[in-house]
């Protein structure tokens, strides 16, 4: 009997801000040249397009053939109680992470991306049983010790080439600003402890570019300066970027965001997750209606890859290599709306058909 992926894997998806959805014309062309001698790595996360074990196998096989880097994105739970109280790790947790680690793709760089914050990015991620530990500050000793153990365990298990020690951390400033200072202290200490054990491992915490640039909040400059002051202390800049979540759909908009990023750092840049719609997105339950098409998706990918070449990025990773309609069909009702948001961002459609953006991917990857 074929195994099913657990629902907890889905909870790694994040919906943060969708600020307005229009029908802006996207006939703009991308005046970029073909690649000449690619200088950056290209890859995908291991997000599967379907619920069956064979779908997972096919996802890893696709990555092995079409990438020289990939991302294991662990953003669904942390066994806090086990780490804090010295108890055995929950079987469901170890089954997930050990199963991923045993699939490690040879001769391919690995980014291990670990979530500290919950889906809303406003508090700690939940334990396996849905609880979160009590704390007065995110830098409380028991939180710090538990998260250090968690990172050490996963890093030892996966032996990654890059470590993202927390995901989309700027969202914490937006969602629950009072926790920010404790978060910074926590991550600084966990990074120091991790560096003492893995001194040659490049470490960062990721930011969501679409919610960093033009955040439209009071004291936006303070927000940007605080976040980037923190991130610029890392070994590299880890970026999450989904333009459609901020109604960005033209080359000029994509480039404006990238230029902003370039102006704010001198550190190496790694896009650890990214994606763009290839079809219209209509989710009545969320009040979402966003136009999308395969041409627009191709323009975004071309813009991102061109910038990767000209600005010496470390890597570009795309979230889902293939539309995950089959996986979405098994989501329970309470998560189907959110799960639909990224469903049609694959470089392949739900049937495995190649979209124009995949041909762009192949052109760059062959260099």
UniProtKB/TrEMBL annotation:
Keyword Hydrolase set for record: yes
Gene3D superfamilies, per the entry: Glycosidases
GO molecular function, one term: glucosidase activity
EC class (word): hydrolase
Cross-referenced Pfam families: Glyco_hydro_53
Catalyzed chemical reaction(s): The enzyme specifically hydrolyzes (1->4)-beta-D-galactosidic linkages in type I arabinogalactans
Keywords: Glycosidase, Hydrolase
Enzyme Commission number(s) of this protein: 3.2.1.89
Family matches, as PROSITE patterns: PROKAR_LIPOPROTEIN
Origin: domain of life: Bacteria
Annotated family: Belongs to the glycosyl hydrolase 53 family.
Name of the molecule in the record: Arabinogalactan endo-beta-1,4-galactanase
Origin organism lineage: Bacteria, Pseudomonadati, Bacteroidota, Flavobacteriia, Flavobacteriales
């Amino acid at each position: 009997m074929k195994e099913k992926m657990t629902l907890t894997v889905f909870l790694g998806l994040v919906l943060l801000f969708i600020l307005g959805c229009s029908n802006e014309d996207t006939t703009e062309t991308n005046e970029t040249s073909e690649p000449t001698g690619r200088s950056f790595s290209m890859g995908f996360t291991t997000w599967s397009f379907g619920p069956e074990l064979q779908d997972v196998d096919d996802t890893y096989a696709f990555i092995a053939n079409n990438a020289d880097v990939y991302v294991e994105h662990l953003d669904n739970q942390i066994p806090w109680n086990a780490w804090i109280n010295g108890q055995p790790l929950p079987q469901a947790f170890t089954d997930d992470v050990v199963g991923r680690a045993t699939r490690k793709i040879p001769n391919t760089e690995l980014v291990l991306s670990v979530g500290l914050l919950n889906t809303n990015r406003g508090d700690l991620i939940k334990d396996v049983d849905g609880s979160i530990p009590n704390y007065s500050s995110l830098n409380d000793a028991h939180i710090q010790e538990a998260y250090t153990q968690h990172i050490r365990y996963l890093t030892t298990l996966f032996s990654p080439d890059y470590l993202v020690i927390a995901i989309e951390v700027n969202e914490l400033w937006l969602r629950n600003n009072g926790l920010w200072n404790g978060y910074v202290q926590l991550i600084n200490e966990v990074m120091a402890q991790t560096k003492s054990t893995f001194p040659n491992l490049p470490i960062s915490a990721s930011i969501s570019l679409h919610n960093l640039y033009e955040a439209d909040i009071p004291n936006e400059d303070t927000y940007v300066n605080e976040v980037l002051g923190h991130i610029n202390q890392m070994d590299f800049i880890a970026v999450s970027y989904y333009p459609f979540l901020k109604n960005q759909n033209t080359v000029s908009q994509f480039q404006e965001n990238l230029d902003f990023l370039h102006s704010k750092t001198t550190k190496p840049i790694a896009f650890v997750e990214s994606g763009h719609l290839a079809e219209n997105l209509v989710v009545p339950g969320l009040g979402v209606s966003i136009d999308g098409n395969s041409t627009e998706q191709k323009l975004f990918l071309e813009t991102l890859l061109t910038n990767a070449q000209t600005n010496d990025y470390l890597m570009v990773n795309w979230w889902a290599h293939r539309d995950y309609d089959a996986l979405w069909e098994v989501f329970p009702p309470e998560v189907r709306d959110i799960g639909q948001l990224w469903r049609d961002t694959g470089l392949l459609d739900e049937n495995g058909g190649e979209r124009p953006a995949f041909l762009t991917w192949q052109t760059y990857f062959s260099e």
